[in-house]
Amino acid sequence: DAGVTQSPTHLIKTRGQQVTLRCSPKSGHDTVSWYQQALGQGPQFIFQYYEEEERQRGNFPDRFSGHQFPNYSSELNVNALLLGDSALYLCASTRSSYEQYFGPGTRLTVT
Amino acid sequence: QQQVKQSPQSLIVQKGGISIINCAYENTAFDYFPWYQQFPGKGPALLIAIRPDVSEKKEGRFTISFNKSAKQFSLHIMDSQPGDSATYFCAASKKSYNTDKLIFGTGTRLQVFP
């Protein structure tokens, strides 16, 4: 049984560009959350998707957007990249439960 | 009101010793308190979690102690091993219309020396 998977593993982008990160939840899970983890910090909640809709959003600008597909996989899009967007982006999944399981993350570097 | 404060920032323990990491929260609506373990270059892995209706939960060498009145909880790692060397995060969450975002502490880097 595969856990949460994310792609790509690493990504290097230039300021002003746009990026799309992908996540496949753990089998049987229907809820996907995205977190941003800056170096040396704890993960910060970006938003959560359930039934293809954004259910709650953290304190992130509109440059951060997402989508959930009918198969429960999800994408995180970031527009107009800033140097400060460099971080590890984590996807976590759950199914009507407190327990959230994280993927390995995508390391985004903005130059 | 959404903060979770974690200490210490770093911890050095000898093999076989006890590692203790502490967290404090402010929002009394929180009702789920997990601990995550993260190795460099990896995502956080759920280690153990507790609900506020119990004061202690033990799984193998890992124990959570929970003090509801003080709004504090801690992770104890007994017989610490070099393989336990990682960053540990406490977190808190509350069920609100099926929303269960996690609020994380700032992390504790644990180093266990042989």
TL;DR?
Chain A has 111 residues and is mainly beta. Chain A has strands at 5-7, 10-13, 19-24, 31-37, 44-50, 53-57, 64-68, 74-78, 87-94, 101-102, 106-110.
Can you lay out the helices and strands and say which pair or pack?
The complex is a heterodimer of chains A (about 110) and B (about 110).
Chain A: E1 5-7, E2 10-13, E3 19-24, E4 31-37, E5 44-50, E6 53-57, E7 64-68, E8 74-78, E9 87-94, E10 101-102, E11 106-110
Parallel strand pairs in A: 2-11
Antiparallel strand pairs in A: 1-3, 3-8, 4-5, 4-9, 5-6, 7-8, 9-10, 9-11
Chain B: E1 4-7, E2 10-14, E3 19-25, E4 33-38, E5 45-50, E6 56-59, E7 62-67, E8 72-77, E9 86-92, E10 103-104, E11 108-113
Parallel strand pairs in B: 2-11
Antiparallel strand pairs in B: 1-3, 3-8, 4-5, 4-9, 6-7, 7-8, 9-10, 9-11
Describe this structure in words.
The complex is a heterodimer of chains A (111) and B (114). Chain A has strands at 5-7, 10-13, 19-24, 31-37, 44-50, 53-57, 64-68, 74-78, 87-94, 101-102, 106-110. With 111 residues, chain A is mostly beta strands. In chain A, strands 2, 4, 5, 6, 9, 10 and 11 form a 7-stranded mixed sheet that branches. A 4-stranded antiparallel sheet of chain A has the order 1-3-8-7, with no helix packed on it. In chain A, a hairpin with a 5-residue loop joins strand 7 and strand 8 (74-78). Chain A starts with a strand and ends with a strand. The model of chain A has no long low-confidence stretch (mean pLDDT 95). With 114 residues, chain B is mainly beta. In chain B, 0% of the residues lie in helices and 52% in strands. Chain B has no helices and 11 strands. Chain B has strands at 4-7, 10-14, 19-25, 33-38, 45-50, 56-59, 62-67, 72-77, 86-92, 103-104, 108-113. In chain B, the strands form 2 sheets. In chain B, strands 2, 4, 5, 9, 10 and 11 form a 6-stranded mixed sheet that branches. A 5-stranded antiparallel sheet of chain B has the order 1-3-8-7-6, with no helix packed on it. In chain B, a hairpin with a 6-residue loop joins strand 4 (33-38) and strand 5. Chain B is globular, with a radius of gyration of 14 Å. The termini of chain B are far apart. The relative contact order of chain B is 0.33. The model of chain B has no long low-confidence stretch (mean pLDDT 94). The A-B interface holds A 4, 33, 35, 40-45, 48, 50, 55-56, 58, 90, 92, 94, 96-105 and B 6, 32, 34, 36, 41-46, 49, 89, 91, 93, 95, 98-107.
